[in-house]
Amino acid sequence: MREINQAFYTGERPLFGEKELRVRDTIFTDGESPLKECFHIELLGCMFKWKYPLWYSHDIHAKDCTWFEMARAGVWYTDHIEVEDCRIEAPKNFRRCQDVTLRQVSFSNAAETLWQCRDVTLEQVVAKGDYFAMNCENMTVKDLTLYGNYSFDGARNVEIRNAKLLSKDSFWNSENVTVYDSFISGEYLGWNARNLTLVNCTVESLQGMCYIDNLVMKNCKLLNTTLAFEYSTVEADITGRIDSVMNPSGGRISAESIGELILEKDKIDPSKTVIVCREKA
Questions:
Q1: What letter does residue 92 receive in the DSSP assignment?
Q2: Which helix (H) or strand (E) holds 141?
Q3: Cα–Cα dist 233/229, whole Å
Q4: pLDDT for 26-50, tens place per residue?
Q5: pTM given for the model
């Protein structure tokens, strides 16, 4: 494998179409698409300071690299890419990519990041930005900390463990999402989702878990969660109190107590939902 060490590139497409290349401690600046259509590239300690660094590329490994703010739309249409121990300041990263692994990566501006990607693994990722992971498929996520609204909109086949999501409107329009051992805070959680499962999770949400087809909650805690489950089919085992429940479509809801239970007969059939309050009078 040929190696480039401590180089400084300006201008458009300086390494266009390169193959079998190791690039170490190199800076790419003032020029678009420096590594477009590249194959089998290893990037070690590199810095990207301008737009579109990796497009239409394959078999990329990046370690200890930095994407600066102007390295926008950094990785698009790229397959088989592994990024670890990297810092990414630029928004709109990772679009329409397949076989993506991000490990120990920080996104200080993750707006519109990870859109329409497939076969994605995230481990120890910290991200701040809205519309994270929209329309992604086949995701495995562990130890994600996310600060940003509208996350995982339209995502399908997602497994999340040990996450902290401060995210309004997360999991809207999603399908086949399972979240374990996580904390989620944000209004309108999960609207219009199908097959959303939360296990051992703590949730804080205004009007959360509404309009869901097949919501399952196992051993979950709901804090300051009001007007929950409207028009949802739900199987919920809640460990403590629910502040209020409104018009579930059907299923079973079990909690220590429910502060306010709203069942409007002109809108839903109350007989389709079993309500169990375990607290003794």
A1: S
A2: strand 137-147
A3: 8
A4: 999 999 999 999 999 999 999 999 9
A5: 0.95
Instruction: Print the domain residue range for 255.
Output: 130-277
Residue the block writes with tokens 């990566």: 105
For residue 241, CA distances in Å to 26, 47, 140, 191, 246 come to 56, 50, 31, 22, 15
CB 204 within 8 A of CB 185: yes
**The tokens of 233 are what?**
């089919």
Q: Is 37 contained in some domain?
A: no
Distance of CA 228 to the CA centre of its chain: 23
Digit-coded pLDDT (tens) for 120-133: 999 999 999 999 99
* In a domain? residue 112: no
Q: Which of 176, 85, 179 is nearest to 125 (CA)?
A: 85
175 in a structural domain: yes
Q: Where are the strands (E) in 45-136, listed by range? A: 47-48, 54-55, 58-63, 66-67, 75-76, 79-88, 98-107, 118-128
**Domain contains 239:** yes
User: How many domains does the structure of the chain reveal?
Assistant: 1
